[in-house]
Amino acid sequence: MITISGFEKSYQGRLALKIPSLALPGGVYWLRGANGSGKSTLLKAMAGLLDFKGSIVLQEKVDLKKQDVAYRRRVNFAEAEPVFPEFLTGQEMVSLFAAAKRAPATQPQAYLDSIGLTPDLERPVGAYSSGMLKKLSLALAFLGQPDWILLDEPLITMDAAALEVLYQWIAACRAAGVHFILSSHQALDATFLPGLQTLVVEDKTVKPLA
Ligand SMILES: Nc1ncnc2c1ncn2[C@@H]1O[C@H](COP(=O)(O)OP(=O)(O)OP(=O)(O)O)[C@@H](O)[C@H]1O
Fold this sequence. Notes:
The chain has helices at residues 39-46, 68-74, 90-100, 107-115, 130-141, 160-175, and strands at 2-11, 14-24, 28-33, 53-58, 62-63, 75-78, 148-152, 179-183, 197-202, 205-208. The protein is α/β, with parallel strands linked by helices. The protein has one domain (2-208): P-loop containing nucleotide triphosphate hydrolases (Rossmann fold, 3-Layer(aba) Sandwich), CATH 3.40.50.300. A six-stranded mixed beta sheet has the order 6-7-8-3-9-10, with helices on both faces. The radius of gyration is 17 Å and the shape is globular. The two termini are 18 Å apart. Adenosine-5'-triphosphate (ATP) is lined by residues 11-12, 16, 33, 35-41. InterPro entries: AAA+_ATPase, ABC_transporter-like_ATP-bd, ABC_transporter-like_CS, ABC_Transporter_VariousFunc, P-loop_NTPase. GO terms for molecular function: ATP binding; ATP hydrolysis activity. This is ABC transporter.
């Protein structure tokens, strides 16, 4: 469960998103909304990457603002358009994230092998294509033992084979009790994401679709 209360985010004094109260019990959520509606703002705030007014609390006890290290270890995030330091290799990025997220020893390799990134790990990420960067950032978002994984536009730039792998990762994590929020402009297919629930971002707020 994630509970959002009294949430407000403004940029340069201009309100972007306001959520008086929202409780997300868990499962898989499709975060849907028009361009500029506030999807990335919500996900970045929930990932602890944006300052905001109000509170976000995990499982009624881990407050993002008060226990930020514990919270961030349990909530993972992948950006829509990942930007990494270009001089670091894929392997160096994986090692950094694996240490920060306390990933079990063999976990990173399993993800990288299945998505086909292993042959490119020694190359600097500045030499990666946009699809390779996306695969790397998604693999990083699965490291550790998160309770929630937030994926901003995970479908963009992914080829069909990579998408199938992503759905397999999500299914395996769901079976282990991990919850997901995926933002997407494309409709998500409930065949691949059983129990899919919808959150709509409009009029500068977020509501579950009844
Ligand atoms: N760094 C920023 N500075 C100023 N305004 C911002 C900034 N980031 C986002 N905004 C504004 O906040 C609002 C929500 O933006 P956000 O990126 O969260 O939308 P989104 O739903 O993810 O959009 P898209 O579907 O186009 O990616 C928009 O009006 C946007 O202009």
